[in-house]
Specification:
six-stranded parallel β-sheet, 2 domains, 415 residues, Rossmann fold, eight-stranded mixed β-sheet, 16 helices, disordered C terminus, single chain, alpha/beta
């Protein structure tokens, strides 16, 4: 069985979706499947095509045993609607060149969203190849765009995206959600039939991370945030909490990442004259175990927005696998998991006072912090192993889609 992954983002780029797709592909390969990836030239997060790929319109390569096809697309990290949509639409249009590049055709097409526009290429490719296709939703577009104020629901572009969303949900053979909270929304608000819904949550490579053995010998306790710095993440709460704890010589903050809000975060840190916060460049997944090994606890932050109640941030999963506690500023599915398994401290979103108090409490209670980290590691081993998650998803897909080819052909004729 051959699966083609269609995505705008993939390693060597660093990011949550890139890591998730890479781990999904590797797990599928371990199941004995032939998996290939069709993607764009890497440019995330700076919006500039990487040096090794500049000047290329098309490139075929191998990444850790994964066959990857790449095509040029307009690269930009500009948050404006025009440039962002140009970037998405350019790759969506050029993705149709997969018809000529990918031989033989796949048995299943797996399309990553966002961007939702890529679903249109998935639909057309599935028609040409006469194969089923799954729309994988790592975020609910365009709801998240509206919630963050990046686009108005009543605008021309907003109305077009809503129509596109409805069209793709009807045409997709299956729809995969990455959080449990998405499923009720898809079922009841988006009117997606239950038989089309699949669940493939984010996982963690538990074999890559090694649990911390002892917290007591850490004189300076490093609290680390590793992930994207965007509007949705509310990372500024870390800087504000750092201002409230700058009298504590034993507490230090490190923010590892990049994103559109990084300049504003740097200005905030400078304006508050903080010397207990360090900003580091993003690191590839292979370096994350060492980063977390040197940390006392991890930080996860989200803005106060109802949309994020269905969110399980990918950045919370490596710390769980690494066995370090989490200070979680936010509400929703991710916060509920941390509270349920007692793997950290949860504070209200955007509440720097409560966040600072949680950091201080963890710093002063190494025994409890160590126990929290241990419970997180146990949870990761039982619930976050990519091999287990992907195998379960694949079995469901094979039973409901791949083995029912007659039903698929009849459905295609009806379209």
């Amino acid at each position: 069985m051959k699966i083609l992954i269609l995505t705008q983002y993939f390693p060597p780029e660093v990011g949550a979706s890139q890591t998730r797709l890479y781990e999904t592909v590797k797990a599928l390969q371990r199941c004995g499947l032939d998996v290939e990836v069709f993607t764009s030239m890497p440019s995330y997060p700076l919006g500039e095509i990487f040096d090794d790929y500049k000047g290329c319109f098309y490139k075929k390569e191998q990444i850790d045993g994964i066959k990857v096809y790449r095509v040029w697309s307009y690269a930009s990290n500009d948050l404006g609607q025009a440039k962002r949509l140009l970037s998405y639409s350019s790759f969506t249009g050029l993705a149709l060149t997969a018809l000529a590049a990918v031989k033989p055709r796949p048995d299943l097409l797996f399309v990553e969203s966002p961007p939702l526009t890529l679903g249109m290429a998935g639909y057309l490719l599935s028609k040409a190849w006469r194969c089923p296709w799954i729309l994988n939703l790592s975020d609910l577009w365009p709801d998240s765009i509206f919630a963050l104020g990046s686009m108005k629901k009543e605008s021309f572009a907003g109305k077009r995206l809503l129509k596109l969303e409805s069209f793709l949900y009807k045409k997709a053979t299956g729809i995969t959600a990455v959080t449990e909270g998405m499923i009720p929304d898809l079922r009841h608000r988006k009117n997606v039939p239950n038989e089309k819904l699949f669940y493939l949550p984010n996982g963690a490579n538990v074999e890559m991370f090694y649990p911390v053995q002892d917290f007591h010998n850490q004189k300076q306790k490093r609290f680390i945030y590793a992930g994207r710095i965007g509007k949705a993440h509310g990372v500024e709460v870390i800087a504000k909490a750092a201002a409230l704890t700058k009298h504590r010589r034993d507490i230090f903050y490190e923010i590892v990442g990049d994103g559109p809000e990084l300049p504003n975060l740097k200005k905030l840190i400078s304006d508050m004259e903080l010397n207990n916060v360090k900003i580091s460049e993003p690191v590839p997944l292979s370096q994350m175990p060492q980063k977390l090994k040197d940390a006392y606890a991890a930080l996860v932050t989200l803005k106060d927005n109802p949309l994020f109640k269905a969110t399980r941030p990918a950045k919370m999963l490596p710390p769980l696998a690494a066995g370090i506690p989490i200070v979680y500023s936010g509400a929703g599915e991710g916060a509920d998991i941390i509270k349920e398994i007692c793997a950290g401290v949860v504070t209200p979103p955007e509440d720097e006072k409560a966040f600072a108090e949680a950091v201080i409490w963890l710093a002063e209670h190494p025994k409890e912090a160590y126990a929290m980290g241990g419970r997180g590691r146990t949870y990761a081993e039982k619930n976050l192993d990519w091999n287990v998650l992907v195998k379960k998803w694949l079995r469901d897909v094979q039973e409901r889609i791949i083995q029912d080819k007659g039903k698929i052909k009849n459905a295609e004729k009806a379209l």
